[in-house]
Amino acid sequence: MKRGVAGAARGIAAAVLAALFVAAAGTALHRQAVLWSGVEVPWGVAGALLLLASVQLWLAAWSRSVIPTAVAGVVTYAAVGVLSAGGPAKQLVLGDVVGNVWVFGIGVVTLVMLVAAGRLWPRAARASVGPAGSR
User: Fold this and answer.
1) Which is it for the CA torsion 70, 76, 78, 81, positive or negative?
2) pLDDT of 98
3) Which residues pair with 41 in a beta bridge?
4) What is the DSSP string of 60-129?
5) HSE on the CB side for 73, CA within 13 Å?
């Protein structure tokens, strides 16, 4: 197996494992809230989306590719979909505002992280190239 193929397979495998962790931890975290001056502030959904963004950015930096970032987003979305598809007594993600922000925020965060990860390497590649394109 060539080095590039092995690296891509390793990146995708890491992305799947990381996405399953983010789906489980984010689903457990997204309902957390704090009572502040009599108003319930849901901080958990922001924490869950921040966890997803940081894991996706780490995957992109570690693998030097946007493919694991995309795989992590798709697998996280699918796993959260499975967790939210249980029966009425077994649903872990409810269809309220916080649940919808968590579910649909996964797609938004994934798109933002794909753009951010895509901008990491062209700039780094230009910085490593000397004057007049020589190394």
Assistant:
1) negative
2) 84
3) 34
4) HHHHTSSHHHHHHHHHHHHHHHHHHSS-TTT-SS-SSHHHHHHHHHHHHHHHHHHHHHHTHHHHHHHHHS
5) 23
Contact 76, 85 (CB under 8 A): no
Whole-prediction pTM: 0.82
Please name the helix (run of DSSP H) or strand (run of DSSP E) that holds residue 10, with its range, or none. Answer: helix 3-29
Confidence of residue 132 (pLDDT cuts 50, 70, 90): low
User: What's the rounded mean pLDDT across residues 37-65?
Assistant: 92
Contact by Cβ (8 Å): 57, 117: yes
Q: How far apart are CA 122 and CA 82, in angstroms?
A: 37
Question: Half-sphere exposure (CA, 13 Å, Cβ side) for 86?
Answer: 11
Q: Give me the count of residues in the chain.
A: 135
Q: Nearest CA to 48 among 69, 31, 26, 32?
A: 26
